[in-house]
Amino acid sequence: MNPPKPTATKTKTKTKTKAKKGKAGPPPLKDSAREAISHFLDTLDGEPCSELYDMVLHQVEEPLFRAVLDYTKHNQSHAAAMLGLNRGTLRKKLRQHGLLAEAEPPKRRRATRVQRPSVKHSTAKRKR
Asked: What pLDDT tens digit does each residue of the chain (128 aa) get?
């Protein structure tokens, strides 16, 4: 006995669902990472490599921080909560990646004081 053939209704429903979703999204992050790391290792062509772990983390952190900051409209408290980091840790990492806009130091409102030449006092005691 042959299995039942799908009806046209089921096929149309699946097609409509796919049409609503639009084109397929990017592959899962772990697949993209695996492919990129494999490509990097293939380009080494037998050359030695060190500190690969730190390099990969550094390469992945920056786009992660950019995406989360864009998503949170640059609200660092929300971004830190979303990432599961302390806000201070997030700020430190943003600084490391050059993603933290540092505020300009405050401008002085008064003119700087002119240093007067110091007057040397004699250390001898005055006679009374």
From this structure: 555 555 544 444 444 444 455 678 999 999 999 999 999 999 999 899 999 999 999 999 999 999 999 999 999 999 999 999 999 999 999 999 999 877 666 676 776 666 777 766 666 666 65
Give the number of other CB atoms < 10 A from CB of residue 72: 16
Predicted model pTM:
0.59
Report the C-alpha dihedral over residues 119, 124, 127, 128, rounded to 10 degrees: 70
Distance of CA 92 to the CA centre of its chain: 11
Give me the amino acid identity at 120. K
- The CA angle 118-124-127, to the nearest 5 degrees, is 120
